[in-house]
Write a structure and sequence with these properties.
CATH class of the largest domain: Mainly Alpha
Number of helices: 7
Helix content: over 70%
Shape: globular
Largest sheet: none
Strand content: under 5%
Structural class: mainly alpha
Number of strands: 0
Radius of gyration: 19 Å
Distance between the termini: 68 Å
Length: 170
Amino acid sequence: MTHRDRFEAIYDAYYPAIHQYASRRTTSADDTADVISETFLTAWRRIEDVPEGERALLWLYGVSRRVLANQQRGASRRAGLADRLRDELAADRPVTPVDLEHVRVAFDELPERDREVLALACWEGLTSRQIAKVMGCTAVAARTRLHRARKRLAARLERTSSLLISMEEA
């Protein structure tokens, strides 16, 4: 099998999963397309490094995860610049926060590591062993991270729900 044939087989087999992975973690179709294209460009360039079988999907998830991290760092830098510019242009105009549902708020309050392990388990349906390969840790560490992330999410959901109830009563 040529490199091209192997790449096409990987692309055909795993494009839907990578598309879902990226679209769940981005806010626009353009960002999703960027993640997908960067992921498969890396796979093309490193086709000899892409593992066989299901491990190829986990490898692609790992690449996508790093592409997203790079995207988020760039977005943070751009957001910082935009904030400074906004402050300079309208120092006295208050910014109204967007009101999100309590589950999204609780999820967003979690550290990035917790959000990622929960997303891999819930959105992508990966096992602890598969999560470990994506995140570059042991299966025991992945199980522990997932357990702790679930506990922290549950605590935040409970706190957010309590706040919502007390706000409604006021």
